Amino acid sequence: MRKSCHILGAPIETGASQRGCLMGPASLRTAGLMETLTSLGWDLTDLGDVQIAQQAETPHDNPAVHNLSETRAWIEALEPMAYEAARNSDLPIFMGGDHSMSAGTVPGVARVAAEEGRPLFVLWLDAHPDLHTLATTESGNLHGTPVAYFTGQGECDAYPALSQTVDPAHICFMGIRSVDPAEHARIKDLNMEVHDMRALDETGVLAPLRAFLERVKAANGRLHVSFDVDFLDPGIAPAVGTTVPGGATFREAHLIMETLCDSGLVGSLDLVELNPFLDERGRTAKLLCDLTASLFGRRVLDRMTRSFG
Predict the structure, then answer these.
(1) Catalytic residue at 167?
(2) Which domains does the chain have, with CATH numbers?
(3) pTM surpassing 0.85?
């Protein structure tokens, strides 16, 4: 039986510091994401792009915060659409747009998990933990706030009220290499699972990923993967406004996606922070399509058992 995938675009750039992320969904479509997944045997439904009306600016006690009204409107628009996509397909893809998108997609998926009586786990593949609240962000760029918001950390009262929060103990950060002091303190206080690039250099990506997947499986959890382009090394993925040297390699990223596919646990996927304006002939968009294909079942060869004598 063919599996289904609903694809939803979220052309958001108001949470980021540079313009261009709004072109992310169109770039992934142009790079052939739909055709690639269809060739792998998936039934694709493109739901198009979410849109919001123009918003009047809302002031905040933290003067650094900007585009608050737009971010709130995106969350309000995305949460119900993510909920419907997760209810009605086997593995929906949410295409950004900057990472503030996940403040809408993750709560929507969390609501589905709650209805199923299952805990939601989140694998956060990113150079940043995005654990700022509206009070602690110094840049005011709200793509740095979604994890604090959907884990219910407070100081995000200007965002919509959550019907479901995600347990901080159910989040696994991989690839982290840029953390602000307030985020560092929150990670320590919450005892969150973090595998920064130093740790991944020491252990490789497979051991910590398999251990996390075992936790998800043991809890009968639903797994959401949030993939930020800056998880990857900028040498292979230049199309991101928040480049941080020393990211995941081509093979590390593919191994993660292939292992996630093998697990059969992934229920939804974010692809965020793709900024085609900063790309080189579409190379980052094409790489994201290839990585997504690995998650959806593409293999170079089926592994065969061979005898040697």
Answers:
(1) no
(2) 4-295 (3.40.800.10)
(3) yes
